[in-house]
C-alpha cells in the first residue's frame, strides 16, 4: 500500500507545494531505518525579487504573494505528478516557525484542502522539514543523526533521534543566522540580495586567507555548540571602512572568500565536534546556506577525516520548498502520530 502526502510551505518568501509517495515497509524494516518516501513533485513560487529592493523580506508583501501563488502552485504540483486532488491521502503544512501572516496563508489553504477532501491534516515544524527532505535524496535517515541547519533565519545543531518526533537542540546562534550574515555582508560590499549566491560566486576569484576575520564563539569559555556571526559581520564592515579611509580600492573577491572561509570554518568545526561528542556517525547539512560551495567542500573534508558520513541534499531541496514539508508529513503519517485539529493555528515562534 502507498499513500500520497501533499506538503504546503509558506513560512517566509517561497510558496511551496510538494507531493510525495509514502510506501509501507515491513514493520522490522521501518523500525530499523524509517519509511520509504519518494518525491513526486516540488513546485515553488518565490517572491524574492519583490523583496530585493528592500534588502530583506517584507512580511506584508510575502503574505500577499503567497495568497496569489497558493492555488496555482498546488495545481502545478498535481499536474507535474500526474495526479488530481482526489489522489491526496493527507495534507502537511508548515505550522511554524515563520512570519505570522505568511504562515496563515498556507495553514488556511491546507485546512481548506483537508476539509474538502476529508483527509487528515498535519501541522509540522519547518526546521524538521529541512532535515526530513534529505530522505528524498539519500533514503531513510540513520538514527541518531546530527543536523546542521543553516538558513536565512536559523543556525542550529540538532540531534535527530526521530525526525517526526524527537529532535534535540544542541546549540544555535546567539545573534545572526549564517544566511543573515551572508545577506548583511553582501549589502556591505555592494552585492545584491539574497547575498549567499553572489558571495559564493565572488569568493571563487578571491583568496580565503587574504584577511583573517574572527571566528565567533570559539574561545575556551564559549558554549561549544553555539554560534555567533554578528561580530564577523561587524569585522567585515570595519575592514572596509578602514580600507576606504586609506583610499584603497576594495578587493571584493578577497573579502568574500575570507568571510566565507570564516563562516564555513566555524560551522564545520562545531558540527564535527558535536558529532564526536555525541558519538553520531552521520551528519546532514540543510537550509539555504547548505548550497554554499565552500561549506560543503570543507564539511566533506572534515567529515571524511573524522569518519563521519555526510549527507547534503541538492541545493534545490536545501532552500525552502513544499517537498520538505511533504517528506516530514510522510514521516509523521508513518509514525501514526495524531492529526492536527481543523482549528489549529500557525505558531510564528514554534521552537
Ligand atoms: O532556507 P532558506 O531558503 O530560507 C530560510 O528559511 O531562511 O535560506 C535562505 C538563505 C539566504 O540568507 C541566502 O543568502 C542563503 O540562504 N544562501 C546561501 C547560498 N544560497 C542561499 N548562502 C551561502 N551560499 C550560498 N550559495
Ligand atoms: Zn527554511
Automatic annotation (TrEMBL):
One of its GO terms (molecular function) is iron ion binding. Its main location: cytoplasm. Binds 1 Fe(2+) ion per subunit. This is tRNA N6-adenosine threonylcarbamoyltransferase. It catalyses: L-threonylcarbamoyladenylate + adenosine(37) in tRNA = N(6)-L-threonylcarbamoyladenosine(37) in tRNA + AMP + H(+). Substrate binds at residues 149-153, 183, 196, 200, 292. The keyword rRNA-binding does not apply. Fe cation binds at residues 126, 130, 320. Required for the formation of a threonylcarbamoyl group on adenosine at position 37 (t(6)A37) in tRNAs that read codons beginning with adenine. Is involved in the transfer of the threonylcarbamoyl moiety of threonylcarbamoyl-AMP (TC-AMP) to the N6 group of A37, together with TsaE and TsaB. TsaD likely plays a direct catalytic role in this reaction. Belongs to the KAE1 / TsaD family. Keywords: Acyltransferase, Cytoplasm, Hydrolase, Iron, Metal-binding, Protease, Transferase, tRNA processing. Residues 38-326 form the Gcp-like domain. Its EC number is 2.3.1.234. One of its GO terms (biological process) is proteolysis. Gene3D superfamilies: 3.30.420.40. GO terms for cellular component: cytoplasm. Its cofactor is Fe(2+). InterPro entries: ATPase_NBD, Gcp-like_dom, KAE1/TsaD, Peptidase_M22_CS, TsaD.
